[in-house]
């Protein structure tokens, strides 16, 4: 699909603040969130891959992409495509090597334009394994990361037990973006803006 055919959305107010930080501190991991999800026993990479693909399929926010239009960031939601998720095997390495690898992932800056804003790195060390989730603050925060980890855990358990992988329907993030666009185009927004401008002027010294 050509860029001209993609439906894009402006960044939300919160996303715009994060984008501005990125412009101030480019090519740094300042807005990245990394979480390691550990599976202690009987690690099953195929079950984990099924769980990860299911969350990608069900949650369009995880498929958010950015592009620049007239040097301004816009976002769109890429179509779901199944992924294999390579496995990094540390069975012949010690725990320190695994820790060092996780730290390197956390420090590695993510490209933002026309690139995924979430990455899953599967790993194994003997019977123990898991996944490092590296996600950008543009589409997640600490609490959302907890919810995502819980979703992956539930789906993984369903997969290892041979059950159909099922989740509750997700509220599309685009609904929030559309709501914010309608608000910005409304009379209420203009009234709110005028009100707060007056309040700020009252606090500004002459």
Task: Provide the low-confidence segments as ranges.
Answer: none
| Mean residue pLDDT | 91
How many individual helices?
A: 6
Structural shape: elongated
Question: What is the count of β-strands?
Answer: 7
Q: Gap between N and C termini, in Å?
A: 54 Å
Structure notes:
This protein has helices at residues 13-24, 45-58, 95-107, 142-160, 173-184, 187-203, and strands spanning 9-10, 32-39, 64-69, 72-77, 87-89, 118-125, 128-136. By secondary structure, the chain is of the alpha+beta class. It is elongated, with a radius of gyration of 20 Å.
Short recap of the structure:
With 206 residues, the chain is an alpha+beta fold. It is built from six helices and seven strands, in the order βαβαβββαββααα.
Features:
about 210 residues, four-stranded mixed sheet, three-stranded antiparallel sheet
């Amino acid at each position: 699909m050509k860029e001209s055919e993609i439906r894009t959305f402006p960044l939300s107010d919160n996303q715009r603040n994060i984008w501005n930080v990125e412009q101030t501190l480019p090519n740094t991991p300042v807005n990245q969130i990394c979480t390691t999800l550990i599976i202690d026993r009987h690690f099953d990479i195929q079950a984990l891959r099924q769980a990860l693909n299911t969350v990608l399929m069900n949650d369009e926010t995880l498929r958010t992409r950015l592009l620049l239009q007239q040097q301004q960031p816009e976002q769109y939601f890429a179509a779901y495509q199944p992924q294999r998720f390579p496995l990094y095997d540390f069975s012949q390495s010690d725990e320190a090597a695994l820790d060092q690898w996780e730290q390197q992932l956390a420090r590695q800056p993510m490209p933002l334009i026309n690139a995924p804003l979430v990455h899953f790195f599967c790993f194994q060390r003997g019977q123990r394994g898991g996944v490092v989730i590296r996600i950008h603050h543009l589409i997640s925060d600490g609490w959302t990361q907890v919810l995502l980890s819980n979703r992956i855990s539930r789906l993984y358990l369903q997969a290892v037990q041979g059950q159909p992988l099922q989740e509750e329907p997700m509220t599309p993030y685009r609904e929030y973006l559309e709501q914010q666009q309608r608000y910005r185009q409304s009379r209420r927004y203009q009234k709110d803006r005028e009100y707060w401008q007056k309040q700020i002027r009252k606090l500004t010294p002459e």
